[in-house]
Specification:
The complex is a heterodimer. Chain A is mostly helical. Chain A folds into two domains: 22-500, Cytochrome c oxidase-like, subunit I domain (Cytochrome C Oxidase, Chain A, Up-down Bundle); 593-637. Chain A has helices spanning 16-20, 25-54, 64-99, 107-129, 154-182, 195-227, 240-274, 281-294, 310-322, 324-338, 347-370, 372-378, 382-412, 418-444, 461-491, 529-534, 539-547, 568-573, 595-611, 614-633. In chain A, helix 2 packs parallel to helix 4 and helix 3 (64-99) crosses helix 7 (240-274). Chain B is α+β, with helices and mostly antiparallel strands. Helices cover 40% and strands 13% of the residues of chain B. Chain B has 14 helices and twelve strands. A five-stranded mixed β-sheet of chain B has the order 3-2-1-5-8. A three-stranded mixed β-sheet of chain B has the order 4-10-9. Chain B has a two-stranded antiparallel sheet with strand order 6-7. In chain B, a hairpin with a 4-residue loop joins strand 11 (318-319) and strand 12. The chains are: A mainly alpha, B alpha+beta. Chains A and B meet through helix 3, helix 7, helix 8, helix 9 and helix 10 of A and helix 1, helix 2, helix 3 and strand 7 of B.
Chain lengths: 648, 486
């Protein structure tokens, strides 16, 4: 059965429509990266406005309502529109390349994830233009987010926007779980998988389990706001503490969703520029899995001042402190990787080292507020602001910038300038520390978070001024990154396939990779397989310690292609049809499709309808069904036109 | 492929960053920080601060070890030879077990005092350090209400406590979540609707301690501050007595008296100003509940909101929930246009006197605003030494007594209706009862009660009577009048 087509299936590889209909994981990765980088600039500008406002006491530059909107949107943007999708850009670009696959398991679902993310992010930010940006904090605490106390539409945008974004995240999470489990090249057992791919796997599991929790909370808040239910309406007996439990049950795993990909990135950069394998691969991977697991048992440390009682507080204090142990293992193993190595200070490496240094500070302050009595003085102060920026900026963003510098040559085929890169790094590191180190002190000096101004006799002025200056130095650093991108794009210094003497499979193919990635699916024998392919004489040395000189035969972890005959990927893997000399010819990749884009539009219109006028939902549903049916009835590949048929 | 070594000056610069940070922290340490968590003035904050410092020094040690190792590795193992490939070490199980076990021990060392601290603070105020003062703090958008159930005192934004005595504060909220935080006295505890909490503290030194709402609660969150004022025990008791004492009556026609009328017309529905009355405490509790219910029933158009109690307002140090000095000038600014000082007040958003005008400023003349301010700034417990009795001539003793009764304000507390109690007992039928109270005759008993109100107290009443020193003939006139009350 065929769904009637209104327009022909896209074929062109150029132009805007080729981007809209692409199902290529690399192009989707680029879309994610560009979009979320733009949101990074938006979130950064929001932060700078707040920093200007706070640089002086009793400042009247902006009013409290705008300030509340700014910090709500800054947090929401940086979490949901920047760090998560920037990580997704890396997942998309790298996972198939690192595991020797030609695409992700569900390429069209992958496209759908991106388009939903894009429309969801636009939906959320559309609220700025109607003057009703969300103003209840990224944590949306009830009942302050309830319509009685928050009658503007801001929090409704927030609720519906986040739910749209959640669909994108869950779909992407499922996609990467299936991809990583099923599409590894022959020989790549789980214990030979690159650590970035491992962390992507753990993150994807967390996304699939955590985002639905948020969805539940958001739907409850949505029906509270729109239809007058009482889930969190305290006036009718709804419990505001329930919101906190549900939100943080999502919210804490979310923190690890944000940081684990960064840990994966750093675990790839450090070995390459230390010219040494990752120290304690197994420990490091297990520590990552342990963090992902333990991340579910610490949520109430966001609620130590809520009054949960001493038993609950004690339990969550201990579980929170315990999570420092696997985190510490990772830090020591990264240092162990550098130890005895031959360290080359590229921009990527400088960012990766800064990640360890800054993340350590964030971890140490984290242990401080894991201690409940101490946290009573720190909760909801700038101490916490400093803490999580050390984790999320000093940690996640530093690692992501390192990752950009590291894989840019692979993705584009040319180098970024190292000179501009080091300037970028240095400004960001200095600016970051100037902004956030003093905020530890501000918190201990009693400055609460989320206040739009403060009185001049509080003793906070100078420190805030330093912090604001730091913010602008950071912004200058980011500006240098943009300059670098433009400058390098003009210069186009060719990168070659393997500019850094890489270790994993992505460095074994050309830069940029061909659309089919691997002409021949590689056979994997070792961790860091590409490195040992280049340096076979080092294999014995690597295995010597572990297995007392005994070399283990590579084990096969490949699925049987035949089992997946119905899957669109079976075709992508059918690489044995080389019927001429053209590289890649005969490798079947799924054809492009408009339907993910259409479906995402339908979904967003439904969201808009929920906010405005119910009949609009019908329009959205019709478009959504069109996308859904068209998609499900569209073959992965159209039958080849006459004359070009090859015996498949 | 190009290799580039970053000169070690970059590493030195990188080292500068933590050093720089430390400098700021030290530079910022000057003693006048009103919300410093290190300015301990009580055992709770001190214990929390000590535990912080204990963890902090452990963290400093770990910080030095880890950051030192990073910097050492970066310098020691920098690439010197492009062709040399270091030993391909896969790991070291013994080392890895070590850096799993050692942090676990460190964590355990931190966990022990943490758990002890949690249970200690949960135990509530110590019972062996004097009578515990019970206070109920209620967070409102965007001000704090303080109720003293045992003293039957209610006030707002400035919480008075005795020095050295434990204070138990029951924390509650009707609207959204707020958080009660006085950094120098105790870490914060949230005020959660439907989930009352408890915090306790002891203020060891007299002083004014800054507090602030620490949970984001909406538009005026930044301006939701309060003070804890710790007095020596005697001053605290005087404050309590003052809160139960009526203010001096105003001269008819004075600005204060006109302000009182204006206040009664435009403000009093929400702001109680006379909680010194006998049953005012329970009445105020009911009124706050009904104000809240009224607002909730029609959130958009309600002309009534929960509002701070204004009893003895002139004793307040700050206005607008602790954000500006309580001066006449600021008060006039505040009344005229609250937005000018604190954006988003419920008062301006709801009170009719602001809603009547398009620009939401008060719909009263400058003079009227000043009168209200003068009235509020005259609200203080009556002071006997400042009271003088007017000289009244002519008429019968009963007529002179009646004028006197009203002009010195006896009627503010003593009702002329047998069914009503204001503050003091109703005086209806006093002539019949007076002779039975003590061994004194009716006349002498009444004379004693006027000259020395504390000598004999009717059951159920406290001595809060304010009366000027009256010449004997005026006392006689008063007795003559009172005796006629039937």
């Amino acid at each position: 059965m065929r769904f009637p087509r209104i327009f022909p299936r896209p074929k062109s590889e150029y132009g805007i429509w080729s981007w809209i209909s692409t199902v290529d994981h690399k192009r989707i990765g680029t879309l994610y990266a560009v979009t979320s980088f733009l949101w990074f600039l938006v979130g950064g500008i929001e932060a700078l406005i707040m920093r200007v406002q706070l640089s002086q006491a009793d400042s009247t530059l902006i009013d409290p309502e705008l300030f509340n909107q700014l910090f709500t949107m800054h947090g929401t943007t940086m979490v949901f529109l920047v760090v998560m999708p920037l990580s997704a850009a890396f997942f998309n670009w790298l996972v198939p390349l690192q595991i020797g696959a030609r695409d992700v398991a569900f390429p069209r679902l992958n496209a759908l994830s991106y388009w939903i993310f894009l429309f969801g992010s636009l939906f959320l930010n559309f609220s700025w233009f109607v003057g009703d940006a969300p103003n209840g904090g990224w944590f949306g605490y009830a009942p302050n987010s309830h319509v009685a106390f928050n009658p503007t539409h801001g929090m409704t945008y927030w609720v519906i926007g986040l739910n749209i974004l959640g669909i994108a995240s869950i779909a992407a999470g499922l996609n990467f779980i299936v991809t990583i489990l099923n599409m590894r090249a022959p020989g790549m057992t789980l214990t030979k998988m690159p650590v970035f791919t491992w962390m992507t796997f753990v993150t994807s599991v967390l996304i699939v389990l955590a985002l639905p929790v948020l969805t539940v909370a958001l739907i409850q808040l949505q029906v509270d706001r729109l239809y007058g239910t009482h889930f969190y309406n305290t006036a009718a007996g709804g419990d505001p503490v329930l919101w906190q439990h549900v939100f943080w049950l999502f919210g804490h795993p979310e923190v690890y969703i944000l940081i684990l990909p960064a840990m994966g990135i750093v675990s790839e950069i450090l070995p390459v520029f230390s010219r040494k394998p990752l120290f304690g691969y197994t420990f490091l991977v297990f520590a990552g899995v342990a963090i992902g697991f333990m991340g579910w048992f610490v949520w109430s440390h966001h609620m130590f001042t809520v009054g949960l009682g001493p038993a609950a507080n004690s339990a969550f204090a201990i579980s929170t402190m315990a999570i420092a142990i696997p985190t510490g293992i990772k830090i020591f193993n990264w240092i162990g990787t550098m130890w005895g190595g031959s360290i080359r200070f590229t921009t990527a490496m400088l960012f990766a080292i800064s990640f360890i240094a800054m993340f350590t500070i964030g971890g140490l302050s984290g242990v401080m507020h894991a201690s409940v009595p101490t946290d009573a003085q720190q909760q909801d102060t700038y101490f916490v602001v400093a803490h999580f920026h050390y984790v999320l900026f000093g940690g996640a963003i530093m690692a992501i910038f390192g990752g950009i510098y590291f894989w840019w040559p692979k993705a584009t085929g040319y180098m970024l300038s190292e000179k501009l890169g080091v300037t970028n790094w240095l400004l960001m590191l200095i600016g970051f520390n100037l902004q956030f180190a003093p905020q530890h002190w501000l918190g201990l000096d009693g400055m609460p978070r989320r206040i739009f101004t403060y009185a001049e006799n509080m003793g906070w002025e100078n420190t805030n001024m330093y912090a604001s200056a730091g913010g602008f130095i950071m912004a200058l650093g980011v500006l240098f990154f943009i300059i670098n991108v433009i400058y390098s794009a003009r210069k186009r210094v060719p990168a070659g396939d393997d500019p850094w003497d890489g270790r994993t499979l992505e460095w074994s193919i050309s830069s940029p990779p061909p659309h089919y990635n691997f002409e021949k699916i590689p056979n994997v024998a070792h961790r860091d397989d590409w490195w040992f392919t280049k340096h076979p004489e080092l294999i014995a040395e690597y295995y010597h310690d572990e297995h007392a000189g005994e070399l283990r035969a590579p084990s096969g972890a490949q699925f049987d292609d035949d089992d997946f005959a119905e899957d669109e990927h079976a075709e992508a893997h059918a690489s044995d049809h080389h019927d001429d000399d053209d590289h890649g010819h005969g490798i079947h990749l799924p054809d492009m499709s408009y339907y993910p884009f259409i479906l995402a539009i339908g979904l967003t219109i439904i969201g808009a309808g929920l906010m405005t006028y119910i009949p609009v939902i019908i329009v959205g549903v019709v478009i959504l069904l069109w996308g859904l049916l068209g998609w499900s009835m569209e073959p992965v590949n159209d039958p080849a036109p006459e004359g070009e048929a090859h015996g498949h | 492929m190009h290799h580039r070594l970053i000169p070690s000056k970059f590493l030195k610069l990188a080292l500068l960053v933590p050093a720089l940070a430390a400098t700021f922290i030290i530079a910022a340490c000057s003693p006048q920080h009103p919300q410093s968590t290190f300015g301990y003035a009580g055992p709770v904050a001190r214990d929390q601060g000590d535990l912080f410092l204990f963890i902090f020094w452990i963290a400093v040690f770990v910080f030095i070890v880890v950051e030192g190792a990073i910097i050492y590795a970066a310098i020691r193992y920098r690439r010197r030879d492009d062709d040399k490939i270091p030993k391909q070490v896969h790991g070291n199980t013994k080392l890895e077990i070590t850096w799993t076990v050692v942090p676990s021990i460190v964590i355990a060392i931190i966990a022990v005092p943490t758990i002890i601290g949690i249970w200690e603070q949960q135990r509530g105020a110590p019972t062996d350090q004097g009578d515990i003062l019970e206070v109920e703090a209620i967070g409102h958008r965007w001000w704090f209400e303080f109720r003293y159930p045992n003293q039957e005192v209610v006030t707002a934004n400035e919480m008075h406590v005795p020095v050295g005595r434990p204070v138990n504060v029951k924390l509650a909220s009707q609207d959204v979540i707020h958080s009660f935080w006085v950094p120098k006295l105790a870490g914060k505890v949230d005020m959660v609707p439907l989930n009352d909490n408890l915090v306790w503290f002891i203020a060891e030194e007299p002083g004014i301690y800054d507090g602030q709402c620490a949970e984001f609660c909406g538009i005026a969150h930044a301006h939701m501050r309060f003070r804890v004022i710790a007095h020596p025990e005697e001053d605290f008791q005087n404050w309590v007595a003052g809160m139960r004492t009526p203010p001096v009556a105003f001269e008819p026609g004075s600005p204060e008296q006109q302000g009182q009328t204006l206040f009664a017309t435009h403000c009093k529905t929400c702001h109680t100003d006379d909680s010194w009355r006998q049953d005012a405490y329970s009445l105020e509790l009911q009124q706050q509940d009904s104000r809240w219910a009224t607002w909730l029933a029609d959130i958009e158009n309600s002309r009534i909101v929960s509002a701070p109690n204004m009893t003895n307002y002139s004793q307040r140090n700050f206005l607008g929930s602790g954000i500006k000095e309580n001066s006449r000038e600021n008060l006039i600014r505040w009344i005229t246009d609250p937005n000018d000082i604190k954006i988003g007040t419920s008062m301006q958003a709801h009170a009719a006197v602001y809603q009547e005008r398009a620009d939401n400023k008060i719909n009263l003349s400058q003079q009227e605003v000043e009168n209200i301010a003068d009235y509020l700034l005259a609200l203080k417990p009556g002071d006997i030494s400042q009271l003088t009795a007017p000289v009244i001539t002519g008429g019968t003793p009963e007529e002179r007594g009646e004028q006197l009764f009203i002009s010195i304000g006896c009627n503010a507390c003593h009702s002329l209706d047998a069914e009503t109690t204001i503050v003091g007992p109703s005086l209806v039928g006093i002539a019949d009862r007076a002779g039975t109270r003590t061994s004194l005759s009716a006349q002498d008993y009444m004379r004693q009660s006027i000259n020395d109100p504390g000598a004999f107290l009717v059951e159920g009443f406290t001595n809060s009577m304010v009366v000027p020193k009256l010449p004997p003939d005026q006392v006689d006139d008063l007795i003559a009048y009172i005796s006629t009350l039937k």
